[in-house]
Every structure is written in C-alpha cells, then in structure tokens.
Amino acid sequence: MTSTTGLQRRSSNAVQRAAVITHGKPPTIGPALERLEKVAREAGVELLLPDEEVEKHGVGEPEPDLTNADIAVVLGGDGTMLRALQRFLATDIP
C-alpha cells in the first residue's frame, strides 16, 4: 500500500481512473467523499461518477461508462458494497 501523504511515482499499472459508488444518503458519507477527491487529485487519479452519484452529491460530471475504471471505490456499508459488487460483477474491475 502506498502513502497518501506524498505524490508517488506512477508505474505502468498504476490506477488512473476510479469509479465511485456511495451510500444512498449523502450525509452518511460525511467528509469521506471530499477526502477521496483530495487524495485522487494529489495522485493524479480521475474519479468516475455515474449519473446517480453526480445527482446525489452535486459534484463532477456523470460518466456513462464505468468500465473504463481501473478500480471501484465504495464509500458506505454492506448494502453499498453489495450494490457495487452487482454493478461490477461481470467486469475485471476490483
């Protein structure tokens, strides 16, 4: 695992795009989404948010095709994890 305190040298298999799925109630996420945005920006990682996430949080531009993601980041509990698992089940996105 790499530190988020400094910029890391990118390897050829470094994460460049991360799909974001969050809890159904925006207040439940608290500052987690803001922190994720900050860490991603510092690391040069583009966050991909589906329509419902953009609408829910009022941030970013919707990404219709999340299959371009290198990884999925899930902010929430069991239900959110299961929803994300279902969404990415037929893909190679971890």
Element pattern in H and E: EHHEHEH
Helix content: 25-40%
Mind summarizing the main beta sheet?
3 strands, parallel
What is Rg? 13 Å
What is the arithmetic mean of pLDDT?
87
Low-confidence stretches: 1-11
- Classify the beta-strand content into a percent band: 5-15%
Distance between the termini: 15 Å
| Spatial strand sequence of the major β-sheet | 2-1-3
Number of helices: 4
Shape: globular
By secondary-structure content and strand pairing, the structural class works out as alpha/beta
Please tally the β strands and state the result. 3
Give a brief description.
This protein is of the alpha/beta class and 94 residues long. The chain is built from 4 helices and 3 strands, in the order βααβαβα.
Provide a descriptive summary of the structure in words.
The protein is of the alpha/beta class and 94 residues long. The chain has four helices and three strands, in the order βααβαβα. The N terminus is likely disordered.
Characteristic key phrases:
4 helices; 3 strands; alpha/beta; 94 residues; single chain
Which SSEs are present, and which pair or pack?
Elements: E1 17-22, H1 26-29, H2 32-43, E2 46-48, H3 51-57, E3 71-75, H4 78-88
